[in-house]
Design goal:
single chain, 309 residues, mainly beta, Thrombin, subunit H, Jelly Rolls, 7-stranded antiparallel β-sheet, 25 strands, 50% strand, flat
Length: 309
């Protein structure tokens, strides 16, 4: 049987869990309070370092009958000892992922329950982030874990409110970048979009709402110890194109690097963006794709509306 309630707050928090116990430096197994956010071959962020999970195992919680913890097996030992309660976050390759959570009161005088939204529901609620006054009527599943309906809320976009139009994408396959040649990245696999569209090649990303946008991209190049790497956004509009500020970097000793850049731009509906990569290794070099179905992009981008013009 469904349960009625009222949303009193919308908030975001890092996707993940926290450490149980106190694993030592070099440990390759970390116990977490909740294993459900994590995937095998997925990346996690622990105390400033990224690791890959080679296994995720549920174990009984010794302190609470009927509850389970989880053990994450890492591809490398911990860089340093961590303490109980240290956050363990899901890592995209360039940033910590987050969840949108509704705090819902189902009985007067009782504390609210927290409901994590699905990817498809997130975009309709981020505009309301913060305390909700007056509260919004919703319907939850009988176990209070799933938002089933929101009869008290009909989301519409208002350019005076917080960001709503957005796009998140990951590079689905490797792409060859010729030496000393700026090349637009194509084949973006769209993870989430709202009022920003991609063309058939997954290259040209077009906004549908006027506003100030935050453009972010992280491009991972294959291994070569020669030359430099750079990325930049390229803006297209009625009067032609304009390249944004580039990010040029020197290589680390192992020759593999992810280059990131971010920029705020003013765009009107119909303007488009591509993200371009450049390298000077002296030969062709790949931008690395990823298995996006595991949710672990190696090269990824985001475009977010942050305010009106």
């Amino acid at each position: 049987m469904s349960v009625s309630g009222q949303v009193v707050e919308v908030r975001t928090q890092d996707r993940g869990s926290e450490v149980v116990g106190a694993p030592a430096a070099g440990a390759t197994s970390v116990t977490v309070a909740d294993p459900t956010p994590f995937d095998v071959d997925g990346q996690v962020w622990i105390d400033g370092t990224a690791y890959t999970c080679t296994a995720v195992t549920e174990v009984d919680d010794p302190l609470e009958a009927g509850s389970t913890n989880g053990v994450l097996t890492l591809d490398a030992g911990l860089a340093a000892a961590v303490t109980e309660g240290t956050p363990v976050a899901v890592w995209s390759g360039t940033q910590i992922l987050d969840d949108v959570i509704l705090d819902v009161v189902t009985m007067p005088g009782e504390p609210p329950v927290s409901v994590t939204l699905t990817a498809g529901q997130r975009k309709d609620w981020t505009m309301l982030e913060g305390p909700v006054d007056p509260p919004v009527a919703v319907v939850l599943s009988d176990d209070l874990s799933v938002l089933e309906d929101a009869p008290g809320y009909s989301p519409t976009f208002d350019s005076t409110q917080s960001a709503s139009p957005m796009l998140m994408a990951a590079k689905g396959a490797n792409q060859t970048i010729a030496n000393n040649t700026w090349t637009a990245i194509d084949g973006w696999f769209i993870l989430q979009d709202d009022r920003i569209t991609a063309d058939a090649a997954g290259k040209v990303l077009t906004v549908q709402v006027d506003g100030v946008y935050d453009l972010r991209v992280g491009v991972s190049f294959d291994t070569s110890a020669v030359g430099s790497r750079a990325v930049q956004p390229h803006i297209y509009g009625v009067d032609g194109g304009d390249s944004g500020p580039l990010r040029l970097v020197k290589l680390p000793a192992d020759g593999r690097i992810t280059v990131e850049t971010a920029q705020y731009v003013r765009l009107v509906a119909g303007q488009s963006v591509t993200f371009e990569a450049w390298q000077s290794s002296g030969a062709n070099l790949d931008v690395r794709g990823s298995n996006v179905f595991l949710g672990q992009p190696v090269t990824d981008c985001a475009i977010r509306w942050v305010g009106p013009l």
